[in-house]
Each structure stands twice: as structure tokens, then as C-alpha cells.
Amino acid sequence: MPIATVNPATGETLKTYDALSPEDVERKLALAAATFDTYRTTTFFDRARLLEQAADLLDADTPDIARVMTTEMGKPVAAARAEAAKCARTMRWYAQNAARLLADEYPADEDVRDSGAARALVRYRPLGVVLAVMPWNFPLWQVVRFAAPALMAGNVGLLKHASNVPQTALYLEDLLRRAAFPEGCFQTLLVGSDAVEGILRDDRVAAATLTGSEPAGRSVAAIAGDEVKKTVLELGGSDPYVVMPSADVDKAARTAVTARVQNNGQSCIAAKRFIVHEDVFEEFRDAFADGMRALRVGDPLDEATDVGPLASEQGRKDLEELVDEAVESGATVLCGGQRPKDFKDGWFYEPTVLADITPEMRIHREETFGPVATLYRVADLDAAIAVANDTPFGLSSNLWTGDDDDIERFVRDSGAGGVFVNGMTASHPALPFGGAKRSGYGRELSDHGIKEFCNITTVWIAG
């Protein structure tokens, strides 16, 4: 895949980049390792000051970087601005909280007295150079939610971003440089995916984090496992959205539209499978389909647009194949199901709702990365949980109910890494984020995320 900005609304290639040479990559690796030797000794106060400066710069840059993101991957420009604002808030949250999150921990004296220690503690120390392999769908946020905690912990970062968002990738390096982080603290590597293995195997790289597809995660995990290096993986998702009779069905249906089409439907944590109790099925179905049908598809730089194009031509083709196979196998199209007739150029697809889904359909097992929802009718909570868990993924889940017993049961039995009740899945710096099963392992954000790339060190001092 070429390293290029291709406008998904028009299919026009706007800018291309040459991949770094092996010599260029070597220089960046050497700089990262040298920078870590000194940066790891800086104080939390010093790192926080730099990260706060980066957040201020990002706030000022938001209108411009939002347009870049929209031009590179097609998200509505209002959503791009919101993404940039979220990144700035997360930078400030880690700047203000990292020292507390990584403070030395002291076990109670009586717990360690029989070890012979006069004093014992746990200290969190940085691992070193961390390689981040990141996707295009949230091109700023996915990187910042790794970079902010990693830099505050004293690590340095190397970014291998998706090849279709090179301008966003270069912006991130420039942003942190302008914020006065030491040269080499955070560097973008404009390289193809074929270069990842060599970089990850380099002795100067201590760990890796990847957000992306399951095949990409498998590859990175296999290489890192062979090298015995720490990894965190956030992979695909096919999140269930369960609606029970005691729920506010109208609100659930309205929220379901947003939950499905956020980021043009190209989000791992977007609700994708809508599982509705038979007592409220028709009410939810009609309201949900009406809401999806009413969305405005159009130019993502137009403030009135709700849904822009998919990020790539191949992505639309993959989505079309899933929908077409389901329809051929008996699924009912409640709305959408095709390319909009008003757009000759670009990679647009109509917001779509499919009913009468069966387990034999590919769309039941595979992730739909675009504005396509599947709808299921169930008899009770047992059946809802069975359908919710009938997936190889386990990223997040949603439950709409007014019954506390439903909540406790769903939290107990859900196979996902997150359970969101009477609201849509979202990420927040104070809460851990990650999944189970083939959605990956490890956690980002919160204290759990910042500790993933720390050497958790036992310090024992004899009495």
C-alpha cells in the first residue's frame, strides 16, 4: 500500500511520500535509544509541563488538523474536531495524574516483616523504546491514548501509522517537537508494514502496542513473542447492543443510530449487533431504521453531513460483500444496502439495517466496518446473552434496561472487556480500555494503561 493521502470523498490522490530508507530507520532507532537514556531520568513535573504545552498547541491547531484528518480518512469534520479536543483533554489528564498513578507503593509492614526487610516498596520504571503500530480510523486519538501515558511514564515512542494518514502521522511528531519534548522522544516512521518485523526485532525496541486488525495483531504478537517483548493489542470488535422491555426504547433507538455510525461506522467499539427483546422489537426496529434512514450522507467537510465516505475503496468492497452475502442468504434490508445513487465519486455507502440474520451468515461472525447494523429478535435475557457472546470478539458491549438484576447478570456473563448500561460505549482517560478473546489483550488508559509499559520493580531493603 503506498504511503499517500487519498481523499476518500473523491478518490483523488493528494500527496504521496517515499518510505524511509533502512539508513533513515537506523538513525531514528539510534536517536530513540539515546534519548531514552536521558529522558527516563526526567521528573514527572518536567514531563507534565511538556505534555501540557502539547495540549495547548493541539487546541490551537484543532481546525487545521481536523481538516487534515477528514481529508485523509473521511470522518465528518465536526467529529474530527471532537477527536482533537479529546486528545488534548487526555494529555492534560495524564499530565495532572501520572505522578499519582505511578507513585511508589508500600506494602504494610506486617505483610513483609517476615521477609527480613526493614523497608519494601514497588516502583514503576519505564521500559524504554516502545513501537506503536496504529490504524487510520481515529488517526489522532489512537496514537495519543498510547503516547500520553507512555511519555509520562518516561518511555519514548516510535510511531508506524497507517499508510493512508501520513500527514496526521507527521503532525504528531511535529506537535511534540514544538511542545519542546527532547528530540527523539516521539518519532514517526513512514514505512510500509513489511518494515515492522525488523524494527520490532531490534534490540533497542523494548515493547510494542498495536491497534488494528486481527491478522496484524497476530503478526505483531508472534514476532514479539519470539523476541519475548511486551505487547498490548486492541483488535476488532463486533459489539452487542441489547435492549430489554424495561428500557427507554425511544432513547435506546436514538442512541443506537449514533452508536452504529460514529466515525462513519468504522470504529472497533461501535455497536454492530442489535439484540432486542421480542416485546419491544417492532418499536425499536421501526425507530432505529427511521433514524438510520434519516442520516445525511455527504461531503465530510460539510458541517451538515452525518456520514461521510468509507476510508478506502477496499473497505467499501469488503462491506458490500458481507451485506450482499447476507441478503442472498435471506437477510431483510430495512434501509440502505447499497451505494448512494447521488455520488459518482468517493467510497460512500448508505446507512443500512439488516434483519433476519442467521448464524450461518458471514455477517454474523465477521466485523462490519462501516455503517451497517444487524438486528436480532430474542425471547429473554438468556437468549440475548447467548447471541451477544456468539462472536470471536469481546471488546465492549451495551445493555439497555431498567432492571438491576438484568445489569448484574449481564456484567457477570458478558464476554467483553467493557459493559456500558443505558448508554453507548466510549473511552475516557480515567477508565481502562481493552478487550477479551480475539479483540486483544492488555489495557489502555487509566492507571492500568500507563502501567502496561512499566518495569514493575520490587525494591527490598534489609533490616
Descriptive account of the structure:
The protein has 15 helices and 19 strands. With 463 residues, the chain is of the alpha/beta class. The chain folds into 2 domains: 3-235 and 439-462, Aldehyde Dehydrogenase, Chain A, domain 1 (3-Layer(aba) Sandwich); 239-428, Aldehyde Dehydrogenase, Chain A, domain 2 (3-Layer(aba) Sandwich). The strands form 5 sheets. The protein has a 7-stranded mixed β-sheet, with helices on both faces. A 6-stranded mixed β-sheet has the order 6-5-4-7-8-18, with helices on both faces. Helix 2 (44-73) runs antiparallel to helix 6 (166-178), helix 3 packs parallel to helix 5 and helix 9 crosses helix 10. The longest helix is centred in the N-terminal third of the chain and has 30 residues, at 44-73.
